[in-house]
Design goal:
alpha/beta; Rossmann fold; 2 domains; 5-stranded mixed beta sheet; 45% helix
Length: 252
Amino acid sequence: MSKRVLIIDDEENIRQMTRLTLETAGYEVAEAGSGTEALAILESDARWDVVLLDQKMPGMVGTDVLRRIKVMSPQSHVIMMTAFASVELAVEAMKLGATDFVRKPMTPEIVRNAVAAALAKASEPQVATVDETNRRTSGQYGTMTMNGFTILRASDVRVALPQKPNERRFIVRRPDGREQEVLIEIADEVLSAVEGVTNRLPVRKAFWTEQAERFLSDFIWNDGSVPAQGKLTLRGVDREELEKAAQKETEI
């Protein structure tokens, strides 16, 4: 039986392109031009494997629709579509149950990748680990997926990723399930600049891990893929977050 996908977007041309892409790939597809129309569809038929949901729509925005979807069709895997992504939006949507983010305008490959990744997640056993539970209760967000690519933490893969002090290594799971190691190298000039801001006080290792993970997420978000050589160099950090991290160190 074909997997079923519901597209929710107020732009007709995007709905048509997405529908054609997915129907050509063998999916059963329906579409809605607004959150209200989508909820009417779900009320009569909640059996959707994947929902592609636009964030910026008149009336109900995507996160409002997402809240209702997770009540009406909790088994559906929801992929947020947006040209205006932010960490805050990603965290909010993930807490509400979104499984992926795709950047608009989308290529057919990105659409297929995201749907394939969502269906792969649907086939995985949904068992929360102690680490995941601790992250939720402490207010931290979980593993994030962008354009069908999932960045896995060490706690997700349960393997040691050896790294030097100026390195952070991640495993990225592609939409087809293949995994690739990606190295983020922290440039010497960045380390020196950070020492200048912190008066040579060391910042916690977690700061560099978070900066490296965000840098990799941004790359995947903008390029729709992982770096071809499996390596990126971090040459800048968020000044505000750095100052907060330095302040925490002085308070300890």
